[in-house]
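To illustrate the input format used throughout this study, we show a single complete record. The first block contains the structure-token representation of the backbone; no residue identities are included at this stage. The design step must infer an amino acid for every position from geometry alone.
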């Protein structure tokens, strides 16, 4: 929702050249939302869904921070300022989502590595002692 609001603000502002980033982020978030809602993550196990969500959060936070700085500092109209302020809020929201998704990603990767046969080690292989 925040990405859509930022998109609308950029359309109404002089900084309309920045409108593509919030639009793409909105569409990507919408796709991932419907993918999780329709349980596509359970049907397509080969795709790394937590990694895709993690990368979306990281790139969105970085891009929103950069374009918000540019919109607030370069343009003086109210819509650009509003888009910049909403962009800073979106940066904080995506940073929080980044932290939560990172924890899910670590759990997902640990679960995946414990299922694979080469991920399991015996205690003898794991110890570094030379007490033989």
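Output of the design step:
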């Amino acid at each position: 929702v925040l990405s859509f609001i930022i998109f609308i603000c950029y359309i109404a502002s002089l900084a309309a050249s920045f409108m593509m980033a919030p639009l793409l982020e909105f569409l990507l978030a919408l796709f991932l939302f419907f993918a999780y809602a329709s349980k596509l993550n359970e049907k397509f196990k080969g795709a790394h869904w937590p990694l895709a969500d993690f990368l979306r959060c990281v790139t969105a936070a970085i891009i929103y921070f950069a374009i918000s700085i540019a919109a607030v500092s370069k343009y003086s109209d109210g819509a650009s300022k509003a888009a910049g302020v909403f962009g800073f809020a979106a940066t904080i929201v995506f940073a929080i989502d980044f932290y939560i998704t990172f924890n899910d990603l670590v759990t997902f990767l640990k679960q995946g590595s414990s299922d694979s046969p080469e991920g399991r080690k015996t205690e003898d292989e794991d110890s570094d002692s030379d007490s033989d």
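Structural context for interpreting the output: Residues 21-111 form one domain. The longest helix spans residues 78-115.
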